[in-house]
Predict the structure.
Amino acid sequence: MKITDCNNIMDFRRLARRNLPSPVFNYLDGGADDEWTLGRNTTAFDDYELLPAQLSDVSKLDLRTSLFGEQLAWPVMISPTGASKLFHAGGEPAVIRAAEKSGMVYSLSTLGTTTIEDVAAAGSCPLMYQIYILKDRGMTADFVSRCKASGYKALCLTVDTPVPGNRERDAVYGFSSGRLRMRAVPSWLRHPGWLYRALIRKDLEMVNLATSERPSESQEMGLLDYFNAQLDRSLTWKDVEWLASLWDGPLVVKGVQTVADCRNAANSGATAVMLSNHGGRQLEAAPAPVDCIADVADALHDRLEIICDGGVRRGTHVLKALALGATACSIGRGYLYPLAAGGQAGVERGLGLLRAEVERGMALIGCDSIEKLGPSFVRRRK
């Protein structure tokens, strides 16, 4: 199977599974606890129907939209996900180049494997940096300064990780436990290139943490252990106000799902929210992002840009989210599967297929412009 045999995002998942050691694939693919929320993120889209307006002139289609004050070619952005080099040697730069060709926003994770500065140098698409407010506020402030110096357009604060989620697949396959599971040994051995990059080239380091100014007593800790120790359970909306004053630009709060939290985000200086449950990797039984859109849009559409983050696998998912009131959608696994399947070429093909689905869907529902998508095009199934 080659990337040219992939006709949709889930085809890339099958190829990614073949290309990656089983512990790495299951780290990418898995969620928290029983993975009900993980599955629900996508299946929730099935609860909505698209309502076509027939005999509409769709001879010309306009997919353009604006986000963070930037004009984008279509209403999908790259969600921040950690450690892209886990999944392909091309890592973050491969995705940036594909996103630039597709006219999208690219988001870098704090736990990325390419530095803030190198990402900025890799392409000219609008950039967003995903950040945590850590116990060491000086480190958080340093990340903000580096983003300003590198020309990032937006800052994205993740707020749903007071503690790491219970990702049982990682324990089963030994990905993060430090214990090698015997049943995974053959899979590791079938992927010598991955082992070479991990053990010899040491490509997989979380370089933004590594290049930050960490206290001397923490230097002997592993980076992931250090990061987990820095998660601050005492955060409040006052801390979001502090970050907003420090950044003074488009600020996204990621991990909110209720109208009350989105209102708090707006009152604290945020300009956008990502309705997200961390890809089903944090709180089990959290609602699917698509189910949160309508209420938030009804209450706060005039104060916040709304991004649906989670479960998007098809162009019709994008259309449903926008018709419900989202400004844009973001994809995580939706680009990581193609990355693992074929690097930059895989991401380019994956994004191209998804965009073609969006365009085809617009023609079929009789809507010639993203700006015209609204409640008349969608209904919840009875």
